[in-house]
């Protein structure tokens, strides 16, 4: 299981890469493995400002649909549109081409509440 040390994580299995005042967000390798083959990614919150832990979209796998929870408050400024045609990128490259959204962070103090790689490994038993 791949859990990069340079990312932050949530208990809901999203990962966060902080770049200045922007957060790039996707789902973890663990999450995509649990979901199985991802067939659709839906984000209808582009250009909206949401609070931490609000639902920003869904990931649909062959057997289930899972909500995606925003790890940090902010405005959703980008959606990875390549996932519309190739949702399987979330399975094959969850930390790279499988990113889902970018958020302009509105409260940087929330970053401290995210999990580091060691804490996330403990959470998933890795």
From TrEMBL:
Domain of life, per lineage: Bacteria
Domain Lipoyl-binding stretches: 22-104
InterPro entries: 2-oxoA_DH_lipoyl-BS (IPR003016), Biotin_lipoyl (IPR000089), GCV_H (IPR002930), GCV_H/Fam206 (IPR033753), GCV_H_sub (IPR017453), Single_hybrid_motif (IPR011053)
Pfam family for this entry, one: GCV_H
UniProt keyword Lipid metabolism present: no
Signal peptide residues on this chain, from the entry's feature table: none
N6-lipoyllysine modification, residue list: 63
GO cellular component labels: cytosol; glycine cleavage complex
Biological process (GO), any one: glycine decarboxylation via glycine cleavage system
Cofactor details (free text): Binds 1 lipoyl cofactor covalently.
Cofactor(s) listed in the protein's UniProt record: (R)-lipoate
Gene3D superfamilies, per the entry: 2.40.50.100
UniProtKB keywords: Lipoyl
NCBIfam families on file: gcvH, PRK01202.1
Role description: The glycine cleavage system catalyzes the degradation of glycine. The H protein shuttles the methylamine group of glycine from the P protein to the T protein.
Family note: Belongs to the GcvH family.
Protein known as: Glycine cleavage system H protein
């Amino acid at each position: 299981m791949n859990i990069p040390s340079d990312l932050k994580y949530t208990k809901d299995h999203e990962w966060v890469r902080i770049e200045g005042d922007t957060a790039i967000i996707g789902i973890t390798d663990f999450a995509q493995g649990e979901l199985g083959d991802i067939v659709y990614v839906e984000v209808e919150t582009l250009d909206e400002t949401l609070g931490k832990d609000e639902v920003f979209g869904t990931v649909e796998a062959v057997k289930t649909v899972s909500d995606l929870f925003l790890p940090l408050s902010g405005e959703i400024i980008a959606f990875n549109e390549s996932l519309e045609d190739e949702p399987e990128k979330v399975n094959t490259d969850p930390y790279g081409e499988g990113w889902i959204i970018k958020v302009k962070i509105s409260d940087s103090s929330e970053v401290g509440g995210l999990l580091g790689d060691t804490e996330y490994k403990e959470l998933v038993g890795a």
